[in-house]
């Protein structure tokens, strides 16, 4: 604080250095909150910037008695709700509701008319050790960043989504959520009950399968996955899948259920390129791989797809592969170049 004009309580208003320290402290967690609300990395970037702009312009309204963090979350949440109201689709999807799995060649094509859930780079996550939720939270921090969880909460109406994130993920009380969202504590509890019931329908046990912290087995699975792609070893890749594995490939309509069906699909596309190069990364707290591909008679390896892996007991339970045109556009957000040319050093990121 400096000799800035007083706010409504008579306390000095946040000056620029103090405000900048506040934004640095809370930027990553607010961006993650906006991502969970919107299902979009790019929209989250815009909304966290909008949040800080609104906070700076309205800093005289913060009297210093409440939590600066809570004040910023209130602005961010309301910005997200307004953005959802303004856009044509209220939610992003990872899979199309009620669409049966495909067999064989993918024929449905990309769905440009749908809005797809985007992955979130681990490099943008707040420090999970320092970002533990409050005592009333129902989800562990690592669990609440997973791609399957973010996809599930997109099924909720915006107000229910906000209530669930504030209370069950961040650990706010129903009273605190009511003060932010408006309405009574009873209305927040009612919204939470409906939101939990929806997630219960999505997950028979009421929540996604809980994952342990990254382990040696997970690192080994990722190394094997990378080797199969570098060697263009289709059979080796398929062996890493569980028998009941699922495969989605946004923005294409088609998806596949079971190892045999996934093998059948890849058998139709595996030789479309002269070779592949895989780069390890992480997304949504999960192992991920960026694939560069080289076409016949072309020297360059170009961004082709981004793979997010759901491991389970040393195998792959679910695989979400962001393909063109969506996939290559995501590389920049993960700090990856669009083209990797021989013989330059191969880009790399830590496996865990």
Explain this structure to me?
By secondary structure, this protein is α+β, with helices and mostly antiparallel strands. It folds into 2 domains: 16-202, Orthogonal Bundle (Rna Polymerase Sigma Factor, Chain: A); 216-341, Nuclear Transport Factor 2, Chain: A (Roll), CATH 3.10.450. Helix content is 40%, strand content 15%. It has 11 helices and 7 strands. The chain has helices at residues 16-38, 41-57, 68-86, 147-153, 158-169, 174-181, 185-202, 216-230, 234-239, 259-269, 326-329; strands at 241-248, 255-257, 275-283, 286-294, 300-312, 315-322, 339-341. Strands 1, 2, 3, 4, 5, 6 and 7 form a 7-stranded mixed beta sheet that branches. Helix 1 (16-38) runs antiparallel to helix 2, helix 2 (41-57) crosses helix 3 (68-86) and helix 5 (158-169) packs antiparallel against helix 6 (174-181). The protein is globular, with a radius of gyration of 22 Å. The protein starts with 15 loop residues before the first helix and ends in an 11-residue tail after the last strand. Mean pLDDT is 87; it is low at 1-10.
């Amino acid at each position: 604080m400096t000799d800035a004009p007083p706010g409504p309580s008579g306390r000095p208003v946040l000056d620029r250095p103090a405000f900048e320290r506040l934004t640095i402290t809370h930027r990553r967690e607010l961006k993650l909150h906006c991502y969970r609300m919107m299902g979009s990395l790019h929209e989250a970037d815009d909304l966290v910037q909008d949040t800080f702009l609104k906070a700076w312009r309205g800093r005289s309204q913060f009297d210093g008695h409440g939590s600066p963090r809570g004040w910023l979350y209130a602005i961010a949440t309301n910005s997200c709700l307004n953005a959802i109201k303004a856009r044509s689709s209220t939610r992003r999807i990872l899979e199309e509701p009620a669409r049966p799995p495909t067999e064989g060649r993918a024929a449905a094509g990309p769905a440009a008319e749908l809005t797809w859930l985007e992955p979130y780079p681990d490099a943008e996550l707040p420090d999970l050790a320092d970002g533990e939720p409050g005592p009333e939270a129902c989800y562990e921090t690592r669990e609440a960043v997973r791609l399957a969880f973010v996809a599930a909460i997109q099924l909720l109406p915006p107000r229910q989504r906000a209530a669930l994130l504030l209370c069950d993920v961040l650990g706010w009380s129903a009273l605190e959520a009511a003060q932010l969202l408006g309405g009574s504590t009873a209305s927040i509890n009612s919204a939470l009950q409906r939101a939990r019931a929806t997630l219960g329908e999505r997950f028979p046990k009421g929540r996604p399968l809980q994952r342990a912290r990254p382990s040696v087995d997970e690192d080994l699975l990722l190394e094997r996955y990378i080797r199969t792609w570098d060697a263009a070893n289709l059979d080796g890749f398929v062996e890493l899948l569980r028998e009941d594995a699922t495969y989605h490939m946004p923005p294409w309509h088609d998806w596949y259920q079971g190892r045999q069906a996934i093998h059948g699909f890849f058998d139709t596309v595996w030789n479309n390129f002269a070779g592949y190069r895989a780069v390890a990364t992480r997304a949504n707290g999960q192992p991920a791989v960026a694939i560069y591909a080289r076409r016949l008679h072309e020297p360059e390896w170009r961004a082709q797809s981004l793979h997010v892996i759901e491991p389970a007991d040393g195998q792959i339970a679910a695989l979400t592969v962001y393909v063109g045109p969506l996939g290559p556009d995501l590389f920049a957000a993960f700090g990856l170049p669009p083209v990797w040319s021989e013989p330059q050093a191969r880009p790399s990121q830590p496996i865990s």
